[in-house]
Request: fold
Amino acid sequence: MGDDRSMLDARAALLGSGAYRPISDALVDAAGRILGSGVDPSLRVADLGCGTGHYSAELARAIPGLRLLLADRSPDAVRVSLRAIPGSTGVVVDIWRPLPLRSSTADLVLNVFAPRNGPEFARILRPGGRLFVVVPTERHLLELRDAGLMLDVPPGKSERVAAQLAADGFVPGAIRRIEYELTADRATRGLLAGMGPSAHHAGAGSAAEPDASSTTVTVSVELLELERSATDAEPE
Reply:
């Protein structure tokens, strides 16, 4: 649980700094095209693997009135997310297992840097509902990977994810690359390396990192937009 808390603290500090704002802006833009911008209390969004709730909070600010479900395996993450988004609902879940949600009730599922359970995502989404998945590319934080602070990302990850989800009843749509350079001092590099699973494996944020000056770090992710097939039979 201590590791979870450390990762959450690193995420909160990094995301609060605006370092990943282009990613949240892309999600908000895509959701606005699908859901509209007006208040519609019938619209349901499930953030599965919500972490600190940062991306859902940005969505809630842009599209008032959404009914938000925040789910994560970490009780700390769910508590932090609920504080960030008053009026939302939170649940502690293992995303790999059957989700305690009714079938065909979600209009949009968010899955940002989180595990994916395609059959369950398809089950809880209404036919025609959308799934947004954010995955890193092989260039994401490559400077930290070259320094041995993070695990590598294999090339072609988004294409493989889209193919896997297609087998679960999703129609692949747009794949949008979000890539930019981030000026990061030593503290920021430590947050970037310490906010994900690599922190367990690669000595992320080690005090042994020699360069204390600011440097450029590449942020590179892809946003996959998929649609729950309206013709497939609902998964059991």
In short: Helices lie at 2-16, 21-35, 54-62, 75-84, 118-124, 142-146, 157-166, 186-194. The two ends are 34 Å apart (CA to CA). The chain is about 35% helix and 25% strand. The longest strand covers residues 170-184.
